[in-house]
Task: structure prediction
Amino acid sequence: MVRSKSSKRWLKEHFDDYYVQKAQREGWRSRAVYKLQEIDEKDRLFKPGMIVVDLGAAPGGWSQWATHRIGEKGHVYALDILPVEPFAGVTFIQGDFREDAVYQQLLGALAGRAVDLVMSDMAPNMSGNAAVDIPRAMYLAELAVDFADQALKPGGDLLLKVFQGEGFDQLVRDLRQKYAKVVTRKPKASRPRSREVYLLARGKQ
Result:
């Protein structure tokens, strides 16, 4: 397969990336762990014994960080369309979250347990065309919001990857009607040229 200049540039950026190298040295599964770590250190997301749902979990960096923070009495329910190598403290479901059967499988795994935190790092396969990519990303964000509506306990929190563009402001307004506080975070490990930001909605009402 002949790689495009853009994909070659991405690969070079990826392997030269400070956070990629740091993750490899420190034993984390992905550079994305540093995004979650920074938000956690600022906003104190985790407490021992929490029940956490990790949407878009592959390759498992966020679940790794969560299990490290919630301890043996907590549990993570992780989902991704891609496989994730299992590890202690995580129940993993492989499937497409856009499919109702997979959505229901995740609810079934929870077995009525009240969720303390839903975190979503889901993103579509990016084409480079914002007119296509932003609506796809917004759809995934809205699915995560719908899931949190159903699964989060009162007072629970939602951490959501979104891409700035059409629909962003409306999503923030909608979240502010459901949660006590909504803030935007752009971690240092998020690539500067990316439109990605994280919305943290705290205190489900």
The helical segments are 5-16, 18-26, 33-43, 61-70, 100-110, 130-151, 168-178. The mean pLDDT is 90. Residues 130-151 form the longest helix (22 residues).
